[in-house]
Specification:
The structure is a single chain. The chain has 150 residues and is mainly beta. The protein has a single domain (2-142), classed as Quinohemoprotein amine dehydrogenase alpha subunit, domain 2 (Lipocalin), CATH 2.40.128.120. It has three helices and nine strands; from the N terminus they run ββαββββαββαβ. The protein has helices spanning 35-38, 106-109, 138-143; strands at 2-15, 21-31, 48-57, 61-73, 78-87, 90-98, 112-119, 125-132, 146-148. It has an eight-stranded antiparallel β-barrel. A hairpin with a 3-residue loop joins strand 3 and strand 4 (61-73). It is globular and about 45 Å long. The relative contact order is 0.23.
């Protein structure tokens, strides 16, 4: 048994080369291949998900395919997104985290993601990112849930 769900997050990024604050967004579909392993705290894939979708960073690149992972690391109070894309023949990586997740602050901590965009070949930081899950997108997010056989 498995599931897939599509999440959209949007916000702003600021290029470290002195660029102005510009829109940044990603739309990714994520979920486990095996729900049994995903829900087992003794599994190395506990609450870990593959993801695939698309990302855009205005001023740097338009919508581009991406692949990576999403880890629901609630024991450490965080959710971690890591995904790669190819931009103008160069690999870039987005690494973002929803942090300080606690039951009393879910409306902020579980909707706001702080991240970076890095050129993987050089290791150079390209941009700092803050994106949010908009609560108005919750019905579309919930409707995207699909169950499968793995």
């Amino acid at each position: 048994m498995s599931f897939r769900i599509t999440e959209t997050m949007a916000g702003r990024h600021t290029a470290v080369d002195g660029g102005k604050d510009q829109p940044f967004a990603f739309e990714v579909t994520w979920g486990p291949r095996q729900l049994r392993d995903w829900a087992n705290p003794l599994s190395e894939r506990f609450l870990w998900n593959e993801l695939a979708g698309r990302v855009r960073a205005d001023g740097l690149f338009d919508w581009t395919p991406c692949t990576g992972s999403l880890s629901l690391d609630y024991a450490r109070g965080r959710v971690v997104y890591t995904f790669d894309a190819e931009v103008a023949g160069r690999p870039v990586r987005f690494h973002g985290e929803k942090v300080n997740i606690r039951p009393w602050n879910l409306a902020f901590s579980h909707t706001t993601c702080f991240g970076t965009l890095v050129d993987l070949e050089s290791g150079r930081l390209l941009s700092r990112v803050v994106v949010s899950f908009r609560l108005r997108d919750l019905p579309r997010f919930a409707a995207s849930l699909r169950w499968g056989r793995g």
